């Protein structure tokens, strides 16, 4: 469900005053072009530098995602942009992150970004999952698994991002992951599995090429084959539901990619 974006300048005066209390007078505002989950998304500039600000009204159905991102961020040093400050006032919740000058990852075959993304997933695998409230991977996939016995394959104690959309990966000298709203606890290899689908959908990889790149992540190399099969099927079911009868072009590509992967894994 996309969220209607409003201009940063349309925030209530009290909220804007709280922002400037932290940044100093704003000199320039650059609205974000990517992402549809935040009502506010912009890079704001002042004499002290710039930060990327995202926010939702406190009564928004997904307001909980702001808390999730704030709570998980301290564990993500070297994996995600640092959270600089948070404002909760006048029925708004804003998060300000370190602003990056990198580009969205290019997932196409042969891209120099691919090794950096693989290394990012290796680094993420070394992060200790914080002791905060998180959904479990087996809970999130419960409705989509072919059989309930498959769900145990997805369980684990690793911190997962779960949305390897290339727009969520910013590449500079290294790659970093943004948008941790769907942070999850589960089996260590799952994020490499999510990457397989996005490599196919956003980078036009074959199944074999996508799985070779996933194989650069140690956790993937030790993933149970039956677990990977079950995960591919569950995601095909998930994207088929999301796609519905008339999916937008991006969703249609994910529906197709996940179905191809599931067919490859199951031989159907």
Low-confidence blocks of residues: none
| SS strand fraction | 15-25%
The residue fraction in helices comes out at 25-40%
Question: What structural class results from the helix and strand content?
Answer: alpha+beta
Average pLDDT metric: 95
What string gives the helices and strands in order? HEEEHEEEHEHEEEEHHHHH
Number of strands: 11
Q: Which shape, going by the Cα principal axes?
A: globular
Termini gap: 31 Å
Trace the largest sheet across and list its strands: 1-2-3-5-4
How much is the radius of gyration in Å? 19 Å
Q: Main sheet, how many strands, which sense, barrel?
A: 5 strands, antiparallel
The number of distinct helices, counting runs of at least 4 residues, comes to 9
Task: Supply database-style keywords.
alpha+beta, 268 residues, five-stranded antiparallel beta sheet, 19% strand, 37% helix
Structure overview:
By secondary structure, this protein is an alpha+beta fold. Helices cover 37% and strands 19% of the residues. It has 9 helices and 11 strands. The chain has helices spanning 13-23, 64-72, 113-125, 137-140, 190-203, 207-214, 218-221, 225-243, 249-266; strands at residues 26-31, 40-46, 49-57, 83-89, 92-98, 103-104, 135-136, 158-160, 169-171, 175-177, 184-186. The chain has a 5-stranded antiparallel β-sheet with strand order 1-2-3-5-4, covered by helices on one side. Strands 6-9-10 form a 3-stranded antiparallel β-sheet. Strand 9 (169-171) and strand 10 (175-177) form a beta hairpin. Helix 5 runs antiparallel to helix 6, helix 5 crosses helix 9 and helix 8 (225-243) packs antiparallel against helix 9. The protein is globular and about 60 Å long. The two termini are 31 Å apart.
